Amino acid sequence: MKARIKVMLKNGVLDPQGKAIEGALGSLGFDGVASVRQGKLFEVELAEKDPSKARAALDEMSKKLLANTVIENYAIEFDEK
Amino acid sequence: MKSAVIVFPGSNRERDMLYALEKITGEKPLPVWHTETELPKVDLVVLPGGFSYGDYLRTGAIAARAAIMDDVRKKADQGVHVLGVCNGFQILCEAGLLPGVLVRNNHLKFVCKHVKLEVANASTDFTNKYNKGDVWRCPVAHGDGNYFTDAETLARIEGEGRVVFRYAEGTNPNGSLNDIAGIINDRGNVMGLMPHPENEIEPLNGGAEGRNLFESVLEAVA
């Protein structure tokens, strides 16, 4: 089973990398970019076949390592079959 | 005083720390590799500076889950003193031994220079040799030293006097909230700071006021 975990900084947490990218887009002439936030995407392949067990495991992985919940939110998605 | 310095893949300030500890305590500190599961019997455990695991994922994130960290947590619970410097501070935050997190410097650049540090709390086991309000010169070298936490936690640690060091005289090098350079846990035996007191211990360094930090612990555990 394949899953994707998207990790993004919470609203209100300063994202200096996103800001720098936003500035670079502006200097390339892309007008109208209101804001850019940078995040992380993890693709995880699991042996587990049961979706609810897989979700529970991914949730645990996200909390324990993939995201730091002081500053980040995470969202788990499964690949379409 | 017996001390141990934990070495992770990518640590690079462990030698400075071993040198400073031996010089100040008069006893050879014990280096401990991160795959060990038990610390030797010591009074002080130090997590040194560096770039453990190349700062992959988040600074300190992977080192915080190393095998030795279970025993660091256990020893901290038993009251053993734990000090994290720079990457060590980042690891202690990621391990949940200290609140908050160190994020990318607000200007995105690595900083390697001297700052002014103000002693915000001189009644801890790590600062009893200073006076409250003392300002001293100390080097910093980091890309992720910007202390961040939620408003509630910030108010709590400020209220409880757990901010131990602040950047003074406009020298905040990273955008850290409330100019925070170092904090301590609620029990008062785990401290982390971004600057490098181990590099300010003798006249050759241009100043020796970092010594007081180690001498404070020496006195506290005597």
What does this protein look like?
- The complex is a heterodimer of chains A (81) and B (222).
- In chain A, 35% of the residues lie in helices and 27% in strands.
- By secondary structure, chain A is α+β, with helices and mostly antiparallel strands.
- Chain A has one domain: Phosphoribosylformylglycinamidine synthase subunit PurS (Mth169, Chain: A, 2-Layer Sandwich).
- A three-stranded antiparallel beta sheet of chain A has the order 2-1-3, covered by helices on one side.
- Chain A is elongated, with a radius of gyration of 16 Å.
- The model of chain A has no long low-confidence stretch (mean pLDDT 94).
- By secondary structure, chain B is α/β, with parallel strands linked by helices.
- Chain B has one domain: 3-Layer(aba) Sandwich (Rossmann fold), CATH 3.40.50.
- Chain B has five helices and eleven strands.
- In chain B, the strands form two sheets. Chain B has a nine-stranded mixed beta sheet, with helices on both faces. A two-stranded antiparallel sheet of chain B has the order 5-8.
- In chain B, a hairpin with a 5-residue loop joins β10 and β11.
- The radius of gyration of chain B is 16 Å and the shape is globular.
- At the A-B interface, α1 and α2 of A face loops of B.
CATH topology of chain B: Rossmann fold
CATH-defined fold name of chain A: Mth169, Chain: A
Q: What is the count of helical runs of chain A?
A: 2
Count of individual beta strands of chain B: 11
Give me the secondary-structure category of chain A: alpha+beta
Estimate percent helicity of chain A: 25-40%
Main sheet strand line-up of chain B: 2-1-3-4-11-10-9-6-7
Strand fraction of chain A equals 25-35%
Descriptive tags:
heterodimer; A: about 80 residues; alpha+beta; Mth169, Chain: A; 3 strands; elongated; B: about 220 residues; alpha/beta; Rossmann fold; 11 strands
